[in-house]
Amino acid sequence: MLKIGLASLRHQPTLDQGLAKIGETLRQCREYGVDIVCFPEAYLPGLRGTDVALPPPDQPAMERALETLRHMCGQHKTSAIVGMEWTSPLGLHNRAYVVSDEGDVLGFQTKNQIPPGGESEHYVPDGTRTMFRIKGVPFGIAICHEAWRYPETVRWAAVRGAQIVFQPQWTGRHSGQTKRMQWGESFFEKAMVCRAGENTIYFASVNLAMDGQTSATSLIDPHGRLIDHVPYGAEQLLVCDIDPDKATRLFASRFDPSLLPDE
């Protein structure tokens, strides 16, 4: 069994406050015996092009933040997936860093399918996809829009052995009040069901807690059934046990690209 945590947290006004919130959550994770916890998209310092005010990118500050994350994960013996922005020679990336329970950086996944509008004015893709492994369980990451609109990003990981795909997301707004729906009524939650069921894997989606939230932090089983979720607007650490052996990847592994017609 693998014990995962999905941290539906509110955005913090400063980088230091965001790191403190992550540290508080990692302490909880250690108490619950969580193996790996996933935080929302771009949690540090926040997602540009949305309704939060952010200072200009500060790469030295992000490098210091990553070192702090390494220390906290090692201290609390919990692996973490943390959304961070990162400046590279290509430009500013929206990344999800993976840090082990020993404080080692295992790598990162960059958001490559970037929605037009606010985000595309700030971020650039890097064109790479990465596989990860925790406690012997292979997993992938597809960030927000990628998994909603481009199921190929999830299938890419599933055909390479992923038994769970994590989706850090930022879906909704802080300003205004969105009508609360029953779970499964939104397009986003329907997409979660599809990503799990069409690949026969677990799908773990983690949203920011917002007043105008339009997608719930949720865990879906390999049959496309909801295991549990966090109510809209609630700040909560959702902890669940999963059995990786149930993620057979049946449908992902049966896909035969040779049966597609030539262009």
Keywords summarizing the entry:
single chain; 263 residues; alpha/beta; Nitrilase/N-carbamoyl-D-aminoacid amidohydrolase; six-stranded mixed sheet; 6 helices; 27% strand; globular
Overall mean pLDDT: 95
The run of helices and strands is: EHEHEEEEEHHEEHEEEEEH
For the secondary structure, the number of strands is 14
Which class of secondary structure composition applies to the elements?
Answer: alpha/beta
Structure, described:
With 263 residues, this protein is α/β, with parallel strands linked by helices. It has a single domain, classed as 4-Layer Sandwich (Nitrilase/N-carbamoyl-D-aminoacid amidohydrolase), CATH 3.60.110. The chain is 25% helix and 27% strand. The protein is built from 6 helices and 14 strands. It has a 6-stranded mixed β-sheet. Strands 6-7-8-10-12-13 form a 6-stranded mixed β-sheet, with helices on one face. Strands 9-11 form a two-stranded antiparallel ribbon. A hairpin with a 2-residue loop joins strand 3 and strand 4. Helix 1 runs parallel beside helix 2. The termini are far apart. The mean pLDDT is 95.
Record the SSE blueprint.
Layout lengths: L1 E7 L6 H18 L3 E3 L20 H18 L2 E10 L2 E9 L5 E6 L21 E3 L2 E5 L3 H5 L2 H8 L4 E5 L3 E2 L13 H11 L4 E5 L5 E2 L4 E3 L5 E4 L6 E7 L7 H5 L9
Parallel strand pairs: 1-2, 2-3, 7-8, 8-10
Antiparallel strand pairs: 1-14, 3-4, 4-5, 6-7, 9-11, 10-12, 12-13
